[in-house]
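Data availability (excerpt). The following record was deposited with the supplementary files.
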Amino acid sequence: MKRRRFLTLSAAFACAPGLAKASSWQGRALGAEVSVTLHGPSALTGPALAEIPASLEKIEALFSLYRPSSALSLLNARGWLDMPPAFQQLVAQCDDAHRLSNTLFDPTIQPLWQADAQGLDLGPARALVGWDRVTKTGNRLRLAPGQMLTFNGIAQGFATDLIRTGLAKRGATQALINIGEFAALGGPWRLAISDPAHGPVATRALHGTAIATSSPGAMLLATGSHILSPDGRPALWSTISVEDHSATRADALSTAAVFMTRDQLGTLKRSAKLTRITALDDSGDLLTL
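Predicted structure:
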């Protein structure tokens, strides 16, 4: 079971129960099949659904690694980019996650990921890793020679937050949004945390918060997990879930947290003021902080 497969969204608008009905939209986004279902009067669900494709298209145009014309692909190809506002917002979130994770969250991991996926020597690619070598001057972002970025550990959370904000502006008061990561309007929304090896291991309730889950064993590259650390350390947990007010932060910090010891997880929870961290080790023992 891959970590990010599809988007499902269920929302309830404030309305008389007799007026509520379900409307849905299906398509593709972020390399996966997606679907959106809203519950409420058609005067609200129709316009809200109509906005979903355009919102997700904006995310694709900025952060897709698979579109040669995306802003991220252009940055990786030429080494610099004059960032549009949303790109600047995500880069600022990367700065925050890099700091809070003590450098374990690092978007410059992309050359290392490519080398591992192709079964190449990791040494030259690892030498390119280093978020501190990415420079910003005004709205211009510049990479060090040979560097490339990936936002696969944060863009899904960013998209989730974007859709949640759009629904709130439309008047949704009860919504659960999932683009690989979950964010809630209202609640409680009850979710299961699942591990690739152990299956469902815990349930969590979201009430206006977000949760992101990383499982190193969900996908394997040549040398092991698809989640790679900047310094080569192995993952210490089978699954990590991070709960926060922001799906963007939860996404990034869950990616980094798989490499942290129990004490480091405690430090992260306090310094980032996270709602909760749930960690499952390889033997199936569950830790909740």
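Summary of structural features: Confidence is low (pLDDT under 50) at residues 1-10, 12-20.
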